[in-house]
Amino acid sequence: MHRFTDPHALLDQTTTLSRFLSYVQVETQSDAHSQARPSTPGQLVLLEQLRQEMLALGLVDVELTAGAFLLGTLPGNTDGPAFGLIAHVDTAPGCSGDGVSPQLHADYQGGDIELKDGVVILASENPELALCLGETLITADGTTLLGADDKAGVAIAMGVVEYLIAHPELPRPSLRIAFTPDEEIGRGAHGFPYERFGATAAITLDGGFSGELNVETFNADAAWVRVTGVPTHPGTAKGKLVNAITWLARLIERLPADERPETTEGYQGFFHVTEVEGDATEATAQLILRDFDAEALAARGALLRALAGELITQEPRLRVTVSVEPSYRNMRPALERQPALVEQLLEATRLAEVEPRVLPIRGGTDGAMLTAGGLPCPNVFAGGVNFHGPTEWICTRSLGESMAVVLHLVQLRAGA
């Protein structure tokens, strides 16, 4: 087996970094309110750019499907089943991804990083910065997110393919590449073409800082609470008005204060109110429910229904409905049935001289849905920190380290 322990050399021998800087400048925020596929046109712009790049590299079976999945194949030079590399092209809708201006901070010597508009990346809140002394960091300019989630993963996949094409002597199975849309709004794996993809296992390149590996995610549900009151003129409202906003606010206030995203960590689940709209007549709240334990997740939905019942008991003129729909499920049980894949991933990380950090994802990835659909798919770090906001950053060394892990994993999958 050929060893890769110099991440900077991998970056020097490929165009991974320049690809990343190009990708982040394409506006690809997804939009949960859109019913289009993909939800925003910018994603198609980047997918088409990637399609042209894949063809230029010499990949075969390159196809942008009607479902906006970009597929391609690097043929193998060994027998055995195909293996997949997957990343998503969209960025989070909560922070602007328009006009991203990547900033390179060479030879970082510690301390805070000041960006525009008073945005500061605080060293005290980013312990990973202490592990990047002397390295080059990449940020946005403070007015947008950077987009390392997950354009770093896209660039790493392309860089790995580029390196393998330049080094045909390295053993590899056939590699199937897939770039997906709308992961950030939970639709990335909807309609995934499993048969056409043809791999028996894969990884998503969608994790955090160097060494992070994920084999478990939250179980996730989406919930809606709709409160219908009794409207009347406010001047003569005493004893008559039943204000839907007031009663919806009471329900939200009764959710456990210590079970919110801002008060939980590790394996603790939460309720998260993501959107509220309406008026005195009718008001609606959208929530996401998260828990690593499936029974505990079900109990969260039950609590919402119980709180709705309490409102009706206190004010019988109210109408309150609660609906709960599954979003994705923890991929751990399925991956526990694939111990060889997980062990190979751990070995590949150690071979790259990166210390594995197996962490639960307090969220989801395409890998959770793909694993549930029969494609075992653990998640591998792509290097970014502070996703979804203007303080997002990445260390270029992390890009090379992720490439090194993937190149070792490819050789292990080939039986090297």
Tell me what the structure shows.
The chain is globular. 31% of the residues lie in helices and 22% in strands. By secondary structure, the protein is of the alpha+beta class. The strands form four sheets. An eight-stranded mixed beta sheet has the order 1-2-8-3-9-16-10-15, with helices on one face. Strand 17 and strand 18 form a beta hairpin.
Low-confidence stretches: none
**Through-space gap between termini:** 6 Å
| Number of extended strands | 18
Number of domains: 2
The first-level CATH class of the largest domain is given as Alpha Beta
How much of the sequence lies in strands comes to 15-25%
Largest sheet: 8 strands, mixed
Average predicted confidence as pLDDT: 96
Form type: globular
Rounded Rg: 23 Å
Q: What CATH architecture label of the largest domain applies? A: 3-Layer(aba) Sandwich
CATH homology superfamily name of the largest domain = Zn peptidases
Biggest sheet: strand arrangement: 1-2-8-3-9-16-10-15
Roughly how much helix do the residues carry, as a percent range?
Answer: 25-40%
SSE sequence, one letter per element? HHHEEEEEEEHEHEEEHEEHEHHEHEEEH
Structural class: alpha+beta
